[in-house]
């Protein structure tokens, strides 16, 4: 390689070496940097290396030097610090809608954002109880397609399916295409949902992204459904328990004081809690009353009471009776 061509690459190679091999605990001296450059076929003198280090610093790279114990040069601040990368790795590793192969690829890219020494700390396994990774990598790309549709203000179409007892796909609406104008995406209970205006139903619906097939962006705009941003997606998500549909209502609950944290976690810090005696409080919230909502109530036992609306209390009692009937005394065979 011609000397001139090598010199043009010298500063770039030096930056790469520093980013890959140094951090606050691992420095490189100028002679070591010169050796690293020579391994890339580039010769360098001490003065030129110092000039390049200053140039990189002026360009915005946090190049630092240290004297005394473990003297040398290293990269200080980075776009992502090690604790932040650990958090991102844990999120990728534990996310069930990302396949194991894609998880490994993403984590490998995250490792490239720090030194080889700190990257070793990112090679860790996160264990989550009963976690099952999806085998369908198309979910990863479906999410990207939906974000593109939202950014462009365009509609999407897809076929929607469930599984039968033989684990076979069974398409809803006899395999017909769903035409939906997206309002936003919700990540709830480790599943992605599309919230949008369903053209056929004439209203807002939500759909599990991993149950979509043949997803594609259409040429139609979302004006009929209000378009992206026309719906408060966060408020929509807060009303639905487990993203199950049901009848929406203004629900009033009476809870023990020990459930304040539970209520705030579920309905948000803006919820208004009204003291009711020494040991209880009431709260009124908008919620979609569904079997999952009743399941949440049941899990709290006698520490919470559904006061209103009357139709919701009646429905809750009916569901309790129906479930209880399955566990009554049965005739022996």
From TrEMBL:
<dbReference type="Pfam" id="PF13280">
    <property type="entry name" value="WYL"/>
</dbReference>
<dbReference type="Pfam" id="PF25583">
    <property type="entry name" value="WCX"/>
</dbReference>
<protein>
    <submittedName>
        <fullName>Uncharacterized protein</fullName>
    </submittedName>
</protein>
<dbReference type="InterPro" id="IPR026881">
    <property type="entry name" value="WYL_dom"/>
</dbReference>
<dbReference type="InterPro" id="IPR051534">
    <property type="entry name" value="CBASS_pafABC_assoc_protein"/>
</dbReference>
<feature type="domain" description="WYL">
    <location>
        <begin position="143"/>
        <end position="216"/>
    </location>
</feature>
<dbReference type="InterPro" id="IPR057727">
    <property type="entry name" value="WCX_dom"/>
</dbReference>
<feature type="domain" description="WCX">
    <location>
        <begin position="250"/>
        <end position="322"/>
    </location>
</feature>
<dbReference type="InterPro" id="IPR036390">
    <property type="entry name" value="WH_DNA-bd_sf"/>
</dbReference>
């Amino acid at each position: 390689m011609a000397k001139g061509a090598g010199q043009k690459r010298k500063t770039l190679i030096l930056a790469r070496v520093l980013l890959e091999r140094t951090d606050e605990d691992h420095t490189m001296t100028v002679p070591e940097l010169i050796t690293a450059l020579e391994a890339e076929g580039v010769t360098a003198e001490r003065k030129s290396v110092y000039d390049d280090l200053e140039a990189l610093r002026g360009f915005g790279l946090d190049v630092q030097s240290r004297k005394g114990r473990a003297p040398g040069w290293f990269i200080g601040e980075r776009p992502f610090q090690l604790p932040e990368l650990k958090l991102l790795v844990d999120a990728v590793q534990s996310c069930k809608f990302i396949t194991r192969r894609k998880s490994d690829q993403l984590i490998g890219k995250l490792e490239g954002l720090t030194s080889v020494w700190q990257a070793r700390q990112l090679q860790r396994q996160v264990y989550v109880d009963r976690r099952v990774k999806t085998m369908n990598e198309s979910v990863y790309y479906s999410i990207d397609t939906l974000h593109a549709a939202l950014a462009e203000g365009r509609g999407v179409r897809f076929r929607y399916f469930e599984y039968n007892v033989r684990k076979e796909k069974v398409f809803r609406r006899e395999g017909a295409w769903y035409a939906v104008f997206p309002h936003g995406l919700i990540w709830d209970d480790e599943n992605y949902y599309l919230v949008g205006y369903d053209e056929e139903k004439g209203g807002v619906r939500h759909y599990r992204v991993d149950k979509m097939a043949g997803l594609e962006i259409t040429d139609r705009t979302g004006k009929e459904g209000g378009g992206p941003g026309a719906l408060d997606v966060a408020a929509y998500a807060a009303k639905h328990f487990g993203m199950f549909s049901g009848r929406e209502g203004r629900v009033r609950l009476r809870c023990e004081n020990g459930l304040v944290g539970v209520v705030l976690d579920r309905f948000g810090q803006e919820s208004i809690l009204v003291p009711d005696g020494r040991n209880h409080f009431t709260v009124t919230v908008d919620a979609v009353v569904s079997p999952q909502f009743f399941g949440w109530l049941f899990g709290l036992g006698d520490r919470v009471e559904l006061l209103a609306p009357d139709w919701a209390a009646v429905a809750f009692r009916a569901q309790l009776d129906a479930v209880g009937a399955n566990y009554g005394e049965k005739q022996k065979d």
